[in-house]
Design goal:
This protein is about 45% helix and about 20% strand. With about 180 residues, the chain is α/β, with parallel strands linked by helices. The protein has a single domain, classed as Maf protein.
Amino acid sequence: MENEIHKKLGDNICSEGEVNLEDVIGKLLIDKNLTVSTAESCTGGLIASKLVNYPGISSVFMEGAVTYSNEAKMNRINVSKETLDKFGAVSKETAAEMAEGIAKTSGTNIGLSTTGIAGPGGGTKEKPVGLVYIGIYINGKIKVKKLLCDGDRQTVRTQATITALDLLRRELLIH
């Protein structure tokens, strides 16, 4: 029965038994000798907080930056003013620049970013509450995932954090 589940779900299985998502990621990062840094806006440090739960992560997790304001995005991780003016802080373009920016400024193989609208206010028809973009930069390649979360502010932040960590896990499996 267990083998059937593994065959059907494959990489959709994050962990088994007492192992959690951050344990899986920590082990993969260390085993592959890949360094990571995070640039978080709407998740406000939750991703970094989860990563540091893994004992020994300090050998591969270099830093986490909460770049909440546009000024922090520009000054700390080199998101361009033009990108922010043209696309806004909550956009795939900004998420991509955040992921690349944190990786390059911290000298890591991987940069992971989140930017979004956690609510309860701040949403528009074009960019509703719950809209989150997750950026991942790995050794020069960038991917961005768009996420639409339901729920209150904490639920949106939690969903975005788990989704970002799962995206990192999936990318680590193929690199």
